[in-house]
Amino acid sequence: MITRVTHQSTQRMSLANMQANLAKMSDLQSQASSGKLINKASDDPAKAAEAMALRKEQRATEQYARNAQDGVSWLNTVDSAIQSSVDFMQRARDLTVQGANTGAIGAAGRDALAVEIEGIRDALLGQANTTYIGRSVFAGTANGSAFTTATDPVTGDVSYTAATVHGTVERRVGENTTVRVDADGAAVFGDGAASVFSLLTNIAADLRNPGVNVSTRLTEIDSRIQSMLSVGSSVGARTNQLTAAQDTLSNQSMTLASDLSGVEDIDLAQTIIELQMQEVGYKAALGAAARVLQPSLMDYLQ
């Protein structure tokens, strides 16, 4: 059986083939100009879904990295305040030892020591109320200062009260990992009559009383220094945890970027070769169609 090929069917087939060639060339041009294999989800639904999942992980990793950096800044602030407080307490201890040597220091000297210890107390209060970006690092999630003072209107005595901590400040550095980035002010500085501020106030009062031997206060000072160092060790451990998390997140970010590139980035050299091949094929198709489809006057009259 002989199949009859009409001029019109040949024309339609040639135009359809050239249109398909042109569409493929357009896709390759779009890929070459954007550098991406997927410019819309319909280009490759499976890879588009994979790319979206990878981008979601990227955004989460970037947020965890920002959280870790913020946490390190918090803990560095806490650590600096604790270290300064320990230095102040060491100085207060040295002054107390000097004040205990009653044979080598007179009343005027003891009074001078008391004044310096009161200055240390006030400096410690400043450290206890240290803030980071406007928030106290020793008050947890509570608003305001970590320690407040109140003066008795009758006796003139000053009391020091730690803020009530309703919750700790934490930073999420992984899907199931959070790290505490603040410190308990009461654990570092004590509270009320048991606070370091009250202790130094009492030592200053003892120094002004010739009949009191302040050497008995050294044990209390050592106890408060030990509490500060204990919390400082915890802060250091948490800082190391966040630093390790930062390294992990950095590696994870690079891995995700590589995976995403493998899914949606083009092979530029291969794409250019394919584009050139499509251009050659399209020109050849145009030439062949021009030779085969010779329009006559009747074609135009139709």
Automatic annotation (TrEMBL):
Coiled-coil ranges from the UniProt annotation: none
Q: Which GO molecular-function terms appear in the entry?
A: structural molecule activity
Broad class of where this protein is predominantly found = other
Record keywords: Bacterial flagellum, Cell projection, Cilium, Flagellum
Task: Please list the residue ranges annotated as the Flagellin N-terminal domain.
Answer: 7-141
Sorted alphabetically, which Pfam families does this protein's record hold? Flagellin_C, Flagellin_N
Residue ranges annotated for the Flagellin C-terminal domain, each copy included: 219-301
Domain of life of the organism encoding this protein: Bacteria
Keyword ATP-binding assigned to the entry: answer is no
**Protein location:** Bacterial flagellum
Does the UniProt entry include the keyword Transmembrane helix? no
Family assignment?
Belongs to the bacterial flagellin family.
Protein known as: Flagellar hook-associated protein 3 FlgL
